[in-house]
Amino acid sequence: MPQQEPLYDHNQLTSYIEAHRGEPASLIQVLSQIQQAAGYLPKPVLVEAADALGLSLTEVYGTASFYAFFIFRPRGRHGIALCNGTACYVKGAAAVKARLEQELGIKAPDTTPDRRFSLDVVRCIGCCALAPVVTVDEDVHAGVDPEKVPGILEQYK
Amino acid sequence: MNTAGLARLRTKAREALRLRANERPVDGYEHHALVCGGTGCISSGCRSVKNALVDEIRKQGLEAKVRVIETGCMGPCNLGPMITVYPDGIFYEKVAAHAVESLVAGHFREGRPVNRLLHRCPDTGKVLARLPEIPFFNRQQRIVLRNCGIIDPLSIEEYIGRDGYAALAQVLNGMTREQVVEEMKKSGLRGRGGAGFPTGLKWQFTLQAPGELKYVVCNGDEGDPGAFMDRSVLEGDPHSVLEGMIIGGYAVGASKGYAYIRAEYPLAIKNFEAAIKSAREMGLLSIDILESGFGFNVEIRVGAGAFVCGEETALLHSIAGKRGEPRPRPPFPAQCGLYDKPTVINNVETWANIAPIILRGGDWYAGIGTGKSKGTKVFALAGKIVNTGLVEVPLGTTLREVVYGIGGGIQNGKSLKAIQSGGPSGGAIPAAYIDTPIDYEALAALDSIMGSGGLIVLDEDSCMVDVARFFMDFVQDESCGKCTPCRIGTRRMLEILTRLTQGRAGKEDVDLLIELANTVRKTALCGLGQTAGNPVLSTTRHYRHEYERHAVEKQCSTGACPMRIGPAQADNAKKQGGRS
Ligand SMILES: Cc1cc2nc3c(=O)[nH]c(=O)nc-3n(C[C@H](O)[C@H](O)[C@H](O)COP(=O)(O)O)c2cc1C
Ligand code: SF4
Ligand code: FES
Question: Which residues of chain B neighbour A126 with C-beta distances below 8 Å?
Fold first, then answer.
C-alpha cells in the first residue's frame, strides 16, 4: 500500500483549540474549525479540545454526535454529498444516488477502499432551484442526472 | 463616524451607483455589468464567466468605461450565468464564457445589445431585453430583496448608497425604544421563520422583560429542505440583516447579537462575516454607534446540520455550545432565552424587513398585503416549474400568479398536481386551489402552512403517498428523540407509509396513520413533532383516493413509488442499464 499522507496538521488544530481555551460555549465553533481543516474529528484532538475548553470527553462526544455535520472517521480525499431534500427528491435524486453507488461500488455513507471518495446523503444545500444537486468538496454540481455521474467523478483524482 | 458623516458617505456612494438608477454617472463609467454570484449561478459557472468578462474588457481596452460587479442572487436561478447591464437594465441569460467576447464587442464597444443572449417571451418568442419587460421581474415587489442582485454584497458603501443604515441613524437620532416597537406593531409584520408570530409584539415582550442583559438572535438555520431565501439574503445583502439586528437590539435594550448560520452555507457565512467587519470599521457596530451612546456587537455562530436546531429553544442551546435539543415553552425566549436572559429571536427575512419599515413607516408596510398577512413574502420556487428561483410578492397574491404568472407554469407541458408549501411541517395544496391567495390563514385552511416560503411544484408524475413518505422519512430522521411521541410516532408512521408504497398495507392502516398523526400533533414537545403529521393529514385529506388505491388495489397510477414500475421508472431503469 502506498504511504498515506498525514491526515492533518496537528499544530494548526491545536491553535484553533487554544484560541478558545476556557470557553466551553465555543465547542461547536472549535469542532467546526477542526473538521474543516482535518476533514473529520480525530480522537486525540477531541481529548485536547475537551481539556482546553473545560469539558469532559463525554460532553464533547455527546454534543458532537448530536449534529449530523460532524464525523469521527477519516473520509475520502473528495467528499461527495448528494442532496435528498424535497426539491431534489422531486427531481429524481434517487436515480442519481443509485448511479453514484453503482459507480463507486459503495453505499452512502461509506468511503471507497482507495479513500478517493466518500459518499453522503444530505438534506438540502440551498441550491434547490437547480435540483438535483450533488456537491463534491466545495463544488456544486447542479441539474445532475444519472448520465452525468461518471463525468463528474472523472474530474476528481 | 456620526450621522453627518454617514450622510456625506451616502451622497458619495449614490454617485457611484447612478448608472444603476439609469442616471448619468459622474465617474466616467458608461456601463455597469452586474454578474450574478449567487450559489445557484456559481454552480452554473458564473465565476469563469465573470473572469472572462474582466479579461475581455481589459483586452478591448474598456476598463475605464465598464465596471464589473459581482452581486448576490438575482432570482431566476435556472437562467444562470446571468449578467445585467446598466443603464437600461439589459438582461443576458445563460451566458457561456465563450460568448463573452461578442458581448463585450457588441454591447460595450458598439453599443448594441447582443440579441441571441437576451431573454425571450416563452410564448411568442419576442425578445424581452430589459428587466422591467420580463414577467419574472416585473410582477414582483421587492422589499426584502431590495438590494439582492443589484449591489456588491461585500461593499458597505453600495449598501449605504441604497439608503443602508439610514434607518439605524433615524432610530438612534430621536426615536425611543417604545416608538421603534410601536412602529413594528403598526406594520403588522409577522415572523417569516414559519410560525408567523407578530414581530412587534415579540419585541415588546422582550423590551418589557426585566433584566439588564438581553440578546438578539438571527435564525439563519434554514433547515427546511426546498427553501433558500435566507441563504440568498445572507449572501446577497448581508447588511440588510445586520442593520435590522442592530435596530432590534436598540429597541429591546440588548447590546449583543448572534447570527446563527448553518455550516452548509459557507458563502453566507463568509459574506456575513465581511459585513460585520466593515460595519465595525465604519463604527456602525461599536460601543458608541453613530455617537449616540448606544453600543452593539454581533457574532456569528455556525450551525452544524440538524433540522431541529432551527427551533428557537434548540437553537439557543446550540449557540451556548450544547446539544441542540428543544425545551418546553413557556417560558418563551422573550423572557428566558440565551443564557437564560431575555432574547429576541427572529428569522433572516424578518430582520431584512426592519430597515425599510422604519424608513417608510409601519403604515406603509401595513398597506401591502391582505387581512392579517401584511407586507411581502419571498418564495423559493422549485420542483417541476419552468422558472425556478426566488420571487418576492405581496401576501395575498394568488398561487396561480406565482406558479404561472411568474414561474412560467409546469415543465415539459405536464399538468400541475399539487403545490407543496411549508416543507415537512406543511402540506400539499391540490391544483384545484390554484386561485387561493397566499396568506397565513388561507394556507392553514387548506391544511398547509406558509412556513418559511418554500413552494415545491409537483406535476402529474408525483405519487402523493410517496411524497408523504418522503417527509416522514425526513422528520423521523431529524427527530431529536427527546420525547417519545415524536421518536416512536414518526417511526411508526414511516413504517406504514413505506408499506403502503410497497403494496403491503391495508385500508385499516390508513386510518391508523391518521390517528397517529393526530396523536403526535397533540403530544409532542416541540414544533417538529407537533407538525410532523401535517404532510400525512393534508395528503390523506386531499388525496384519500390515492391512499385507497395503494391500500386496496395495491396500485400506484403514477409509477413514482416503489410499488409498481410505471412509465417513469421503466424509463429510468432503462437509462441505468437495467438496474431499478
Ligand atoms: C423544527 C423546527 C425548525 C425550525 N427551523 C427554523 C429555521 O430553520 N429558521 C427559522 O427562522 N425558524 C425556524 N423555526 C421557527 C423558530 O422556532 C422561530 O419561530 C423563529 O426563528 C422565530 O423567528 P420569526 O418570528 O422571525 O419567524 C423552526 C421551528 C421548528 C419547530
Ligand atoms: S417533538 Fe421531536 S424533535 Fe421536538 S423535542 Fe420531541 S423528539 Fe425532539
Ligand atoms: S432540496 Fe436539494 S438543494 Fe434544496
Answer: 39, 222, 227-228, 231, 264-265
